[in-house]
Amino acid sequence: xxxxxxxxxxxxxxxxxxxxxxxxxxxxxxxxxxxxxxxxxxxxxxxxxxxxxxxxxxxxxxxxxxxxxxxxxxxxxxxxxxxxxxxxxxxxxxxxxxxxxxxxxxxxxxxxxxxxxxxxxxxxxxxxxxxxxxxxxxxxxxxxxxxxxxxxxxxxxxxxxxxxxxxxxxxxxxxxxxxxxxxxxxxxxxxxxxxxxxxxxxxxxxxxxxxxxxxxxxxxxxxxxxxxxxx
Length: 231
Hints:
With 231 residues, this protein is of the alpha/beta class. Helix content is 32%, strand content 29%. Helix 4 packs across helix 5 (146-158).
């Protein structure tokens, strides 16, 4: 089953009166049960592409369907509801709410979906244990290291059991051992529940976790490599 189907995706930004093509006609399919990595130099369009896939940005041309739904055709309200049910996003900047505890931050997607607070926090505590932060549930984000904040962001992306998980540099602030543990958790999550996982990364230490790797340059996918046979 296809989780993501992109056809002829074009995204153009206006930069100081100049048109800059961030995506120049992207075709990409991502299946459920697959871990797809997007790699390439900074500024090549990787983050723009995952933002379109996650419904955070609308493309200017082409179509992007997630589980058969065209996000660009939805109203903002419909998009929010769809993302809350089907998509988990790990932002490079974490985007944690500074006034909430770690457990409260992780609970947010469940609360949006109408889960009672006590049940949401119970699930949050459980998934924080899985990412090695069971002893930090009552801390504020400002009391955590960058690597710990990154793991909170990953826990928040997983907690509502989304079918598609999109990560922007999920291991960039992590040491090798913690990065490996987090990637194993993400990989197991995909395999056990037939989800799809898309990761933008420059971290060569985690390339081996990918089933396929799409190399991007200058707003285009220049090569897709199947690495699943190496696992």
